[in-house]
Design a protein that fits this description.
mainly alpha, 5 helices, flat
């Protein structure tokens, strides 16, 4: 029941709920996933869907999955190209990324190193090093 009317004999009007703000938008997770898989940024996806970036972040898991799919696809293609074309540069890169390979450089040094030892205490050099101080 509504509130009693101030005027006797008048029936109280039932309260109607009026929504305030923008109409509710139904977002399709599949669309968001496909856009993330193609490499679109959050700003670009939000612009296409006409929503704010903060609203888009409600779909963080979908965005993360789409971007993981993209990264996996890129890696797969790079590996296929490297193996098919026998591209030495690409094979070295793939080896470093997935086979934990490293460039090892053996450096030998002979002779003496004459470098002064400099030690700073805190952020300033000692007072004795200040210009014009002859202690």
């Amino acid at each position: 029941m509504g509130k009693p009317s101030k005027n006797k004999g008048e029936k109280a009007k039932p309260k109607t709920s009026r929504r305030v703000g923008r109409p509710r938008l139904e977002l399709c997770e599949e669309d968001i996933l496909r856009m993330a898989q193609t490499g679109l940024t959050d700003d670009e996806i939000a612009h296409i869907l006409d929503i704010s970036v903060s609203t888009l972040h409600n779909f963080r898991a979908v965005l993360k999955r789409g971007r993981a799919d993209l990264a996996q696809s890129i890696k797969r293609t790079q590996l296929e190209v490297a193996l098919k074309e026998r591209d030495k540069t690409m094979l070295i890169w793939v080896g470093k990324q997935y086979a934990k390979q490293k460039d090892k450089q053996d450096v030998e040094h002979s002779g003496e190193v004459n470098a002064p030892q400099v030690v700073f205490y805190g952020t300033k050099p000692p007072k004795a090093w200040a210009e014009g101080d002859d202690e």
